[in-house]
Amino acid sequence: MDEQPYNNFNPTRCNICFTRNVHNRLTVTGQKLRFCKGCRMIGYCGEQHQKEDWKYHKDFCRSVMRILTTKRVEHILDIRDDSGNIVGSTKRNLECAISLAESMIISMLRRKLHRHEHTLLRFPNICRVCYEYDSSKLKGCEACFQVLYCSEEHRLQDAENHAKWCEMYRVNLLLDADFPEYEDILNFPKLTAFELSTFPKNSFDLVNTAYKTRISSTPKTAEDFKDLKYVSNYSHVGSILYALYTTNMHLELQQSLVIYVVGAEDELLFFDYNICAIIFTYLPQVRDVIVHFIGPQLYNFKEDVELTFKGARTVKMRFHMGLYHTLDANEFLGRPQLVISYNCGFHEYVDSNRESWGTTLARLLRFVNIPIVFTSYTRDEACQDCAIVQRVNKRAAKKRDLVFVKRAAVNPFKDYKPLRNTSYIDERDELYHSNGYISLVITRVP
Ligand SMILES: [Zn+2]
Ligand SMILES: [Zn+2]
Ligand SMILES: [Zn+2]
Ligand SMILES: [Zn+2]
Fold this sequence. Notes:
The chain is an alpha/beta fold. The chain has two domains: about 15-175, no CATH class; about 205-445, Rossmann fold. The chain is built from 13 helices and 14 strands. It has helices at about 15-20, 45-70, 90-110, 115-120, 150-165, 165-175, 205-210, 220-230, 235-245, 250, 275-280, 355-365, 380-395; strands at about 35, 45, 140, 150, 255-260, 290-295, 305-310, 315-320, 340, 370-375, 400-410, 420, 430, 435-445. The strands form four sheets. It has an eight-stranded mixed beta sheet with strand order 7-8-6-5-9-10-14-11, sandwiched between helices.
C-alpha cells in the first residue's frame, strides 16, 4: 500500500482536500468535518472524500472498531485499566491511553503504524481542557483551527496558554511537506553588498539581508509559506555561522575551515550551492571549506561533493559512514575548527546498550579550544543533552574545563517550521522546531 498519500497529514482537516489542492491551503481552514463513524477519529469534508480515503484508512479503522467492541467503549480514549478506571482522564493518563491503544492496534495489524495513523492517534480531536471527544460538541480555535474545545468556558480557560502557541499551530496546519523550489532564487550574493559589521539576528534576517528580500515570519499567503520553508533551509548553515560569531572564531579563521557534522543523517540537503554561498558571505577570508559528514546512517551518500564558487572558493563535502570513534584512524580528517551535531539526541539511548554517544563525545571533547555545538528539538531534551556532555567530560581521564558558551538556549537559527510535540506532559514546548535549541561548549586545558 502507498504509505503516504497525504501532504503533511493533519487530524483537524480533510486531508484529501489539502493534499489535492495545497495551493489553496488557506481555504481548508474552518472546514466543518464529518467524522468517520467507525473509529470516530478522522474527519472529512464530505462523503466523497471519505470514500476515496477508505483504502488508506480501513485497516486502522477496523482495528479501532474491534477494540471499541471488545472493550465496550465509545472511543479509544475510554479504554479502562484493570481496575476499571478510565485511562485517558488526566494529561499523563491521556498519554497512557494513547500508548495502550497504539500497542493494541499494532499487534492487530502486525505492522508498524503508517505516519498518518500515528499522527491520528497521537493528536486526537478532543477538547484541549477536558478531553471530551464528542465531535458534535467540539469547536476549533478560530485562528489556528488546530486546537479544539467542548465549550466557550474551556476555550477561555485555556486562552492565556493557547495565545503562546496559536500562531505556530496555524502555520503547522497550513504548511505542506514539499521541498521548496529554488529555480527563481538568487545568484551568489556579492560579498561587499551588505553590512558585515552586524551579524543577523535570525534566519529571516540572514536571508533577507543576503538576498534583499522581505520574507515575513508570519506567513499569510501561499507564497509566504513557500518562503518560510526556504528560510528554514538556512537553519543548518546559520547555526554554524552563529556559533563562529558567538565565539569570535570568525575573526580567527584563515583560508580554510574544517567542520565535522557528527551524527549526520540527511543534512547534505541543507548544504546546497546557494546555502553554502552564505558561508563565504559571512566569512570572506575563507576560501576552502571541508565538511565531514560522519554518522552510521549515511547509507545514501558515498561520492564526495565539491562546489566551486566565485574567486576559486570551494566547499568539499565528504561522507564517513560509521560512528566517529570507530572511524579508521588512518582516515585523517584534519583538525576541525568546529564540530556540530544537529538535533543530536545525546540523551536518547543513554544507559542502554544502544548508547554510542558517550565514546564519541569523549573523543570530541579532546579537541581543546574548538567549539562543539549541538542542537536539540525541545528545551527538555536540550537540558538532558547538556547534562550528558558535562558527565562525559567529568569522567575523562585527562582533566579539562568545560565552558558552556550557550546552554540549551533558544536557537535564533532554528528551522522555523513548527512541529507538534507528541508529549502532552511537556508544556514548555507544545510545538517545537528542528534545531530549536542550541548549546555550545568549549574545553580548555586547566
Ligand atoms: Zn475533502
Ligand atoms: Zn474510521
Ligand atoms: Zn472541554
Ligand atoms: Zn489557535
